Structures are given as C-alpha cells and as structure tokens.
Amino acid sequence: ARIMANGRNGNLKVTLGHEDQALVEGDPDRLKQLLLNLVENALKYTPSGEIQLAMHKQTGEVGISVSDTGMGIPPEDVPHIFERFYRERPAGEKFGTHSGLGLSISRQIVEAHRGSIRAENRLGPDGQVLGARFIVRLPAAQ
What we know:
Helices cover 23% and strands 32% of the residues. By secondary structure, the chain is α+β, with helices and mostly antiparallel strands. It is globular, with a radius of gyration of 15 Å.
C-alpha cells in the first residue's frame, strides 16, 4: 500500500492501525487481490490525507478494515458500490475512469471465503463525513 501511494509527493500516508496476528484459510492470491482492490479504491478517492489498514482477531473471525480520509461515499451510492459495473461519479466528473469491477470482485472473493464485506462513511461528532471505511470479516482458521 505504501508503494502504491508513493507517487503522491508525500501528501498521502499509509499507516497500520490495530494489528492482531491471525490466520484465515483461503486462496492467498485472491486474498491479496482483495486487499489490493480495497487499497486501490482508497487511493482513488483520497488525493491527500491518510489510508489506514487494520486487522482485529475476534472469536471465530478476523476483521480487516481499510479506512481513508477521502471524500466518503455518497449515501445514495452505498447500497450499490459492490454491484458489478457500478461506478460512483464524483461531483463534476462526467464519466468514471474506472471499470466498476474492483469492489464487485472484492465482494466475490470475500463471499467465496465465507465472509462478509461492507462499506460505511466515517463520521465526525458533528456528522461531517471524514472518509470511508471498508470492513471485511473472514472466518478464522481453526
């Protein structure tokens, strides 16, 4: 994630939040693809600020989150962002520059690993959007 963010002239930092040691069973290549998709998405919508990755081990599952300080997700788009070919268009952008497949593929990878994925806006105390957070839950390895 840090390498991917390098071209931002120091305006974007990638940090590691909470970090538990945990194992999940699954296809390592697809799980890597899942994380790269989520990081790429955060980079796309966070021109400057911070992207934070975190992992929490809970009873029977592993929670992974990718949070950013970008523009957040328009409320009307939240129910659709994991749909195939759905592309959120930032204000003023006539046509999206991406295929709309990354988050759909991410959802398919998570579901193939018997997990769940959701997106939410991070809100400040005054209700102001502070960015987006994607949360993945996968069964922990036994």
